[in-house]
């Protein structure tokens, strides 16, 4: 019989070659898992911050808010995400919310110096920028990587304070440091517009939209200016560009319809305006232009369909009552025709009286008289009101009544985005925050 192989003693604490391979594989898998977890913990949440910063550069604040609010609670920079939410609120004019969120970020351990700087920027943006003449350059020196936030707040602040030349100087300095940021061109355009340099303003708006085609505010400002200059075809093309990007924006569709009207494409204008008037009869210009076209074409049914619902909001309005009087006459409804015509004649008489009273009120610059004239223009004509509310605001800038009345006009013009900003300003003032733009 062959001898059995000698038994080899194996120490169980010493790994075999196979064991070493297994452990190497397990270690590699574990390292990969750790790497993936680290990437998920650090890199993936960072995308929200970067996307928000990109949206901020073209003042797309709602989009920026969505991105930063999607930052996960377990992310390593959750306190910075809260700081970013405060900054977005500040930049969009919501100063009360900005201070609340900045307080939360501070409580989570955010750098106190950063929070203090942002709170000072809230004041600067609110119109107090002239009170801090050296603060901008101190902040740029202290935080050069965050200079755009300081430039942004001070440019807006000087515009709000009625100092467009200073705002332009700041935006020009910003542009020389970072020519890729479209906001500097946009603010230079606003400053040029405020000083009457409309062609220069158009050039700046064009630069801003060339840098960022999705800069909707710059497109809109450019289109409005083109319309003022009588370049209606160019204005139409610009409004159409915005409408294709944001079909849900009521103010854009309304501006598109009004521009088509000016271009004598009135049937196209009416088709563009009908969805607005049907959805919200309080948006004055949409229903009014549809009624005007109905008077021109003899479409009594169209006038009644779109103008009658408006009377809940504008019962004493002269032009709308005239349109209804024409429609009722065409339908042979003598009683309703007589009532509408009487309301139209009363409004006309009041407007004649207002034209006489306005000379005296303007020469005296009496706040109560100016407000009374503005309210009557709103009731009887609608279109004359904003000019007189603005005059009243110039006499008493701290009084909220003209701002609240102009907010009503913004809502009735479909300018909901602008109205949100104005509403935040009013709320901020009511809570003791600075009054600004």
Automatic annotation (TrEMBL):
Q: Which UniProt keywords apply?
A: Membrane, Repeat, TPR repeat, Transmembrane, Transmembrane helix
Which stretch is the leader sequence?
none
> Which InterPro entries would you find in this protein's record?
TPR-like_helical_dom_sf, Ycf3
Task: State a single Pfam family of this protein.
Answer: TPR_19
Give the stretches traversing the membrane: 23-44
Q: What is this protein called?
A: Tetratricopeptide repeat protein
């Amino acid at each position: 019989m062959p001898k059995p192989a000698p038994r080899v003693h194996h120490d169980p604490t010493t790994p075999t070659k196979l064991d070493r391979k297994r452990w190497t594989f397990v270690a590699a898998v574990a390292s990969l898992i750790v790497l993936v977890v680290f990437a998920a913990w650090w890199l993936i949440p960072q995308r929200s911050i970067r996307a928000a910063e990109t949206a901020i550069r073209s003042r797309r604040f709602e989009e920026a808010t969505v991105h930063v609010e999607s930052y996960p609670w377990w992310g390593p920079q959750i306190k910075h995400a809260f700081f970013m939410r405060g900054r977005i609120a500040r930049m969009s004019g919501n100063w009360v919310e900005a201070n609340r969120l900045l307080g939360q970020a501070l409580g989570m351990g955010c750098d106190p110096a950063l929070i203090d700087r942002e709170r000072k920027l809230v004041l600067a943006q609110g119109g107090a920028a002239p009170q801090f003449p050296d603060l901008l350059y101190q902040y740029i020196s202290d935080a050069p990587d965050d200079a755009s936030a300081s430039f942004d707040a001070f440019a807006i602040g000087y515009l709000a304070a009625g100092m467009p030349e200073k705002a332009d100087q700041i935006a020009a300095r910003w542009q020389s440091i970072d020519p890729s940021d479209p906001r500097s061109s946009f603010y230079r355009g606003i400053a040029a517009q405020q000083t009457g340099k409309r062609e220069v303003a158009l050039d700046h708006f064009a630069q801003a939209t060339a840098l960022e085609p999705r800069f909707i505010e710059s497109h809109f400002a450019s289109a409005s200016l083109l319309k003022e200059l009588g370049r209606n075809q160019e204005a139409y093309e610009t409004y159409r560009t915005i409408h294709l990007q944001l079909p849900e924006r009521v103010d854009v569709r309304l501006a598109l319809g009004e521009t088509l009207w000016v271009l004598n494409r009135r049937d196209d204008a009416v088709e563009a305006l009908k969805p607005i008037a049907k959805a919200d009869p309080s948006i004055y210009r949409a229903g009014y232009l549809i009624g005007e076209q109905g008077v021109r074409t003899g479409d009594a049914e169209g006038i009644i369909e779109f103008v009658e619902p408006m009377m809940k909001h504008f019962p004493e309005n002269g032009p709308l009552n005239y349109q209804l009087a024409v429609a009722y006459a065409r339908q042979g409804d003598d009683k309703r025709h007589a009532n509408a015509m009487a309301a139209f004649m009363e409004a006309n008489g009041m407007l004649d009286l207002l034209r006489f009273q306005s000379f005296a009120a303007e020469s005296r610059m009496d706040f109560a008289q100016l407000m009374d004239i503005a309210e009557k223009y709103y009731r009887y004509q609608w279109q004359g009101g904003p000019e007189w509310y603005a005059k009243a605001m110039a006499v008493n800038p701290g009084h909220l009544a003209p701002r609240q009345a102009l907010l009503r006009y913004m809502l009735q013009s479909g300018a909901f985005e602008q109205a949100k900003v104005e509403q935040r300003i009013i709320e901020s003032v009511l809570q003791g925050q600075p009054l600004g733009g």
